[in-house]
TrEMBL record:
A family per Pfam: Glycos_transf_1
Glycosyl transferase family domain location: 228-363
Protein name: Glycosyl transferase family 1 domain-containing protein
Keywords linked to the UniProt accession: Glycosyltransferase, Transferase
Record InterPro entries: Glyco_trans_1 (IPR001296)
Record lineage: Bacteria, Pseudomonadati, Pseudomonadota, Betaproteobacteria, Nitrosomonadales
Organism whose genome encodes this protein: Sulfuricella denitrificans (strain DSM 22764 / NBRC 105220 / skB26)
Keyword Nucleotide-binding attributed: no
Amino acid sequence: MRILYASERPPYPYFLGGAARCAHQLLMTMANELGVECAAVGSSDYAISPWADPQPGEYQALGIQGVWPNEKRRALSVSAPLRSSPRPVCDELEARARPDEWGGIIDCGYPVQVFPNFLVALADFIDDFKPDVIWSQLEGAREVLDLAKAKGIQGVLYVHDAEFDPDELRATAELGCHVVCSSGFLAEKVRRVLSRGVHVVYPAAELYFDSAGDPDGYVTMINPHRVKGVDTFFEIARRLPAEKFLLLESWKLNDAALASLQSQLNQVPNVLFVRRVSDMRSIYRQTKLLVIPSIWEEGFGLVAIEAQSCCIPVIASARGGLPESVGDGGILIQNSLNADAWVEAIGEVLGDAFAYSEWSRRALRHAGAEDFAPLQLARRFLEVCSAPVLIIAWHVRVLNAARDRLQKLPVLGRLFCRDFR
């Protein structure tokens, strides 16, 4: 089978957020463990949020096995899958180059490339690669899956965010694609919008069972944004001046966001800010406790499983899919804005060595559950790709159309349609 991952947002290793790392882990597992020919492409014109080219010094930590000029890409992606066996990262010449300078391909165990004029280039790439399945997510998914349908190729929409546009989701689902959600919570929310069955495949995390957190390390938060609860994090740090806190960039911050963050950091001296890293092990090895004070509904919460695989307990908001990712390997806070509740929970986990050891044991056990094993998740994803599409019945389409019309009426829309949002 050949699977093409295509999204307007550039894929891993250009983006290092949870959705990108999940896609990478699934693609790498399918390519290296299950014999699937995989490729990933995105838009080099993407400008919705900041992103960065991988630098040669990061290649090894990012799992980049090589970089080739553009003319090698087509032969690699069509006639011969990339080798899965380890080999030198790059020769001296290629290690000095950046893939975007010449439209090169990055070998992450499968070929990765970004294109200008994305949809036009994607159509050509599809004709060359001849995938059996096109998987898309996030920005541009509707356009990608519309192209897949036009070319008679089965599409898969992987929904990661709970903050989706219902109308856009319905229009995309009606293209005849499979719909996969990153948690049971998200699947139920999507079902209410689509009135059809959807699949659940938990995000595949890179599990670091060979690494361990530091019981004397930091209380860590990843991704300093308001929707992720960074203001609550700073309030917690203010109330616990004797504790060391670490704040790690994930979504790349622009200059304005960095300046705003720095003004907060200046007021809380026990918080260390670290720019985004290519190897998360380096962060988890310094961490004793991970906090996820999200305000919005998380689709899943990949960092919870990653941290738990390092024996690090997690305290998180009881929002969205976080109860599924945290499980019994941590504590859930019902009111994410209540700093007192966070301080109390931190005291419960870090109160004494015996309590911390027990929470660490629970964290590791939860991360080791079969539900989160990358190979099992890859097999589950392939099962979805090969299954019949869960079609929307004609009468459900009629009801959806009627509901859409009602939503445009101010009074009736509020009365009859609010539950579907």
